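Can anyone check this?
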Amino acid sequence: MKRVKIRCDMNIQNSSRGPSILIVDDEEMNRKLINTLLSAEGYTPVCAASGQEALAIAANANLDLILLDVMMPGMDGFETVRQLKDNEHTSCIPVIMITSLEDRETKIRALQAGAEEFLTKPIDRADLIVRVRNLLRLKEYGDFLSFHNEMLKTEVKERTARLEDAYRETLITLVRASEFKDEGTGLHINRIGRYACALAELLGMEEEFIKTIRFAALMHDVGKIGIPDSILLKHDVLTPDEWAVMQSHCKLGADILRCGNSKYLVMGADIAMSHHEHWDGSGYPASLAGDAIPFSARITQIADVYDALRSRRPYKPSLDHATVMQIITEGDGRTNPSHFDPDILAVFCKNADMFNNIYSSSEEVT
């Protein structure tokens, strides 16, 4: 016998009528009967003649409730409700299972499959309407809670974003204060953040680390705000005493940044304190070596060295990219390959053109 597919109401999304209820039964007469009962109560019935059709409708319609026959050819009600509950889009739609079987095992199996309620044939009108009304109330309350939770999540995300923006604005203000001492360092500071971000990404770091180091690295030299201009801007070679004062900018920066527990300040303090440490232990201020140097500082260190060599300073001219890469990879007496984390150095050298492009397309701190 050819199965006739009936749609009780083609306008599934008709918002001018009551809640939308999907009737799933392979028997046309049963569909028509339930359709009549629900329509009389102001609901919006939608019909399906099989489990497969029910899944297709549920995936594309905004349903409030499903009345599902158990005994159907092909995909029965048990499998249909299981798939409905396994699908994130349809898992929250309450299901009433309907069958002519009255044994306890069938009811338990239906409930275990995920059905919320159970009705037996022949359907009693009052019983049907009461169960439908109760489940729709629960669905409405569940929808309200879900909407409320989404609103809370959105509000938390927005507040977090505003807080992070405020942190970044404060940090950039602090960085700008330190760069006023040397008008040439503004572009340098911004480039360090871009180099560090690129390196972290190339090294396969997590997104949170990458986002954090982009701004934390900007603060690597914030301690120079406490260094006298006579030393910071001196054209001649620094005396031993002056060099000791210059080296103190690492601790000064760390002390400034260790005033809070935001992720930017925590990482920024590590970078400020240790970005002049060397992998071989020959750096300052604590002569740390290897993994004892914070990873964020190791990334920032090679970025800082590259950009410092490329940039003009009161005590030195600028160098081209090829010359700088030769110094970093071969050494020149002051800078040696042993100063850098070997893994970071390898990634840096492999992507040298990227860092050359960053230098060439410098932008102001934003």
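Reply from J.R.: I decoded it. The CA atoms of residues 188 and 307 lie 7 Å apart.
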